[in-house]
Design a protein that fits this description.
6 helices; 79% helix; 196 residues; mainly alpha
Length: 196
């Protein structure tokens, strides 16, 4: 079995603009999610909406790009939630890498797979948070903390994951179609130039 790790392509100016626009929309969605998380809409808990966003992008992009984006999502999530800076990024980086490798080589990029990959990332991050913030320090009322804070914070991203998947799929498909059209146009121009 041969695994695809990286690919090298050269882009013309129009393709570079399309890639920039795609990543601009990804970044805009990240900013909107960050504003929702920091706005204080939810009283006792915050949904960690950057997890389904990072896993959706990891399913549609390359390893390096999705890993950098997931690390940035983790850092912003730490800022939004007031956690130790870098805690979420350490877990989201390998989760994004694993998600991208699975989506490129073993599984299909669909909503069901996105749901279970998001659930796995939520389980890993939520378990680490609960372990390092509450169990190790032997807090009283750990069950209450888990029920009222940890579980809703990590269950809500799984429930909202299909929305993020469809948004990222639409952005990715829109710009992939444009990139394919540009590739086809440049190939036709090259072929017509060789015919003359």
């Amino acid at each position: 079995m041969k695994f695809n790790i990286t690919s090298t392509t050269y882009l013309n100016r129009r393709q570079k603009l399309q890639v920039f626009a795609k990543w601009f929309l990804y970044s805009l969605s990240l900013i909107i999610v960050f504003m929702i998380m920091t706005s204080g809409i939810f009283e006792s808990w915050q949904p960690f909406l950057m997890l389904p966003l990072a896993t959706a992008i990891a399913m549609h992009e390359g390893e390096l790009n999705s890993s950098i984006f997931a690390t940035f999502c983790g850092l912003l999530m730490d800022i939004a939630t007031g956690k130790f800076f870098g805690f979420s990024a350490i877990i989201m980086l390998p989760a994004a890498m694993l998600t991208t490798l699975l989506a490129r080589n073993l599984i299909r990029s669909n909503i069901i797979n996105h749901l279970w990959l998001t659930a796995a990332a939520c389980l890993a991050l939520g378990g680490m948070q609960f372990l390092f913030e509450y169990i190790i320090w032997d807090y009283d009322g750990q069950e209450l903390i888990f029920k009222q804070y940890i579980f809703p914070s990590y269950a809500s991203p799984v429930l909202l994951a299909p929305l993020f998947f469809l948004l990222i799929k639409w952005i990715s498909a829109t710009f992939m179609a444009n990139e394919k059209n540009v590739n086809r146009d440049t190939t036709e121009k090259e072929e017509s130039g060789h015919d003359k």
